[in-house]
Amino acid sequence: MPGESTPGESTPGLVVCPVTGVIIDQPRPGQRFVSATMLPKDDDLMISLTSQHRGYAKGSKEDVYTQAAYNARNKDSNQRNNLRRSINRIYQTPTLFDVADITADQRAALDYWQGTPYAVPLNGLRG
Q: What is the pLDDT of residues 63-76, one digit of tens each?
């Protein structure tokens, strides 16, 4: 389909959304994901995004395009954030069972925060 590429593909001067694989025309500086202004112009993309995520609560103030754009941005970071939150919870509350094993993919996700105030201490974790 025109305007689509494989997620994560990079070409000089071309911005591709890592979640949807859609090429972003005229991106703003630093833009990595589809935006709410792009979605009304692409019905197929909007349908695919709304079918992938559950609906928002009734009475939500955002329109459907803004909600779909939020979901696309969150999909990229939710797994990484949930893993970080789980590990921090393990450090704060002792557990009954050994939870020191993490996979290589999880370790790579945690490396995202290395050198920031949000870095996760990995002492004691095997992986």
A: 888 888 888 888 88
CA distances from 109 to 17, 80, 112, 120 (A): 18, 6, 6, 11
pTM, 2 dp: 0.61
Work out the angle between the directed axes of helices 64-92 and 43-52 (0-180°, nearest 10): 30
Buried-state track 24-50, b at ≥16 Cβ within 10 A, e below 16:
beebeeeeebbbbebbeebeebbeebb
Question: Tens digits of per-residue pLDDT, 24-42?
Answer: 888 888 888 888 888 888 8
Quickly list H helices, the chain: 43-52, 64-92, 104-110
